[in-house]
Amino acid sequence: MTISTIFLILMYIFNITSVISIVFIRRDDTGVTLAWLLVFIFLPYIGLVLYFFFGSTYKMRRMSKKFGMTEIEELYSKNLDDQLEKILSDKIQFYDLETEKYRDMIIMNTKNAMSYYTENNTVELLTSAEEKFSRMFEDIKKATKKIDVLYFIFKTKDNIGKEFLSLLISKLNEGVEVNIIYDSLGCLKTRLKDFKKFKKSGGRVYKYLPNNISSFFNINYRMHRKMVIIDEKVAYTGGINVGDEYFGLKKINKPWRDTSIRLTGNSVLSLEIRFLADLVFLQNQTWHNFHKNKFDYEAAIQKKLSMPINTNGNVGIQILSSGPNSEYEMIKDAYIKMITSSKKYIYIQSPYFVPDRTILDSLRLAAKAGVDVRIMLPGIPDKRYVYYVTLSYLEQLLSYGIKVYLHSGFIHAKTIVMDDHVSTIGTTNMDIRSFKLDYEVNAVIYNTNFAYICRDTFLNDINDCRVLDFYSYSKRSLWTKFCESVCRFISPLA
Predict the structure, then answer these.
(1) ∠ CA 268-273-279, rounded to 5°
(2) Burial (CB count within 10 angstroms: exposed 0-12, middle 13-18, buried 19+), residue 317
(3) CB-based contact 160:352 (threshold 8 Å)
(4) pLDDT for the residue numbered 290
């Protein structure tokens, strides 16, 4: 046999193996399985390549075990078991009595997402990049020990990127430790060499993924988290990255509407441990660092887990994280729990809306049960393909009795608030990619006063929106409906 014949036979065997994996091992949602099977049927060899790059999350789970730290999980598990026992036995009395109604939600997030519940926090809502960076830069200027920075997008050549780096370099010169993680594909124009002056001043910077070969083979899985932790006392997370467009400076998606939060209390330690785990994962992928910091980080995390509780705040918070290395889609599970637990209302803001069957059914049942379900989406897209997928669901949502609002600009906020008590703000979009393929982090906040703020912010944003109605929207052009159908059909592959 010729080499080409052998190659084709091997490719055929790999195709059959992949199909068996999809049907009998992965057991994904039926829509995802069907879409991949059709790819293998019509693109038998190209489909194998596409599946290797975009279809399987097994690679990331294997990498997580190899380059992560099992000690982190073991320490987390031990401390979580102690807290869970207290919650289950009613030994924890909630500061806000309304939180008692959501004890089952706290238990679910504790078990499902390995998430601590802390109640000594403060939280501040920040609804613009101007507000977020102004507040954050004030805190950074006061830092005396350590600053940890993680962004999906860090545009070093934008004005805000230059200002941010300059401030961090000045803190390095004061003796403050500074670590930066950014996603190498989140902003293709950002290079490690852009941080030359920062590194020369003693800063440490890591890109996700650090190994170019790993980045190529795992191109579909992105580090979408955004976190800044200052002296382990103050933290920021939410939708806002480091780039001028978040200030509404680009005409294509202006105005830009976004949301972040400022946290203090022991929820900050949960974010810090999340950052350390991500840092270890990246460090261990370079041969000269593999296992080098193993015991140092284990000791550091143990110390953080045993730190005394600060009692300055009274807001209950759980920090949830998920990614392609997770067995379950934990943040999606938390969203579903919020939807199904709502009795009065649930308001959702998301830049992308690509739900699976479970999310759709949860929203439908909530609306049919009399819950006031409202969803706010961008009126101006940043990605045409994803926007067509989002539009394809709107007629369905309207038929359920759900109110849909299209913002006058690009709304990038990822927020949910329900029943004047529970809210969540973070990096997770209401789509399949965020739920399954990207590394995300969200704060779930149990507090009546903060929920009021989130509710009123949503209602105020309606003033900048166009309200859709079922009759008018159902009469959109056949071409639009065709584009929606095609994009929606292939969306499970992404």
Answers:
(1) 125
(2) buried
(3) no
(4) 47
Calpha distance 360→397 (Å, rounded): 8
Q: If you average pLDDT over residues 21-46, what whole number do you get?
A: 58
Tokens of 93: 């009395």
**Separation CA 416–CA 407 (nearest Å):** 16
In 3D space, the residue among 20, 1, 8 whose CA is nearest the CA of residue 44 turns out to be: 8
Burial of 175 (0-12, 13-18, 19+ CB in 10 A): exposed
| Tens-digit pLDDT profile for residues 220-263 | 788 999 999 999 999 999 999 999 999 988 777 778 999 999 99
| Residue found by looking up tokens 């973070």 in the block | 426
What confidence tens digit (pLDDT) does each residue in 407-453 have?
Answer: 999 999 999 999 999 999 999 999 988 998 899 999 999 999 999 99
For the ranges 290-294, 305-309, 357-361, which has the lowest average pLDDT?
Answer: 290-294
- Burial of 65 per CB tally in 10 Å (0-12, 13-18, 19+): exposed
Residue carrying the six token digits 């660092």: 289
Domain range list for the chain = 3-56
Task: Report the percentage of the chain scoring pLDDT > 90.
Answer: 53
Question: Residue 54 pLDDT more than 60?
Answer: no
Q: Which residues are catalytic, by number? A: 224, 226, 231, 412, 414, 419
- Give the Cα separation of 261 and 256 in Å (integer): 17
How many other CB atoms sit within 10 Å of the CB of residue 439? 25
pTM of the model: 0.86
Distance CA 432, CA 29 (A): 11
